[in-house]
Amino acid sequence: SAASDVYKRQVLALRQIMQTLSERDRMLLTMRYYQNKTQSQTAQALGMTQVQVSRREKKLLLTMREELLR
What we know:
The protein is mainly alpha-helical. 81% of the residues lie in helices and 0% in strands. α2 (23-33) runs antiparallel to α3 (39-46) and α3 (39-46) packs across α4 (50-68). The longest helix has 19 residues, at 2-20.
């Protein structure tokens, strides 16, 4: 169906964007969205503060959203 084609394209685009990120940024997003870790848990694992994780996550999501909407 057309909807599943759009979904497949979005998943592929998201994977491509993820590959362009640094290892640390990929880990941050993986921990937050695939492993359902809290910002504090993610921060501890990555040697960051919760505030740094929050700010970095927000920036990453905005950048990725812009890339997906191109």
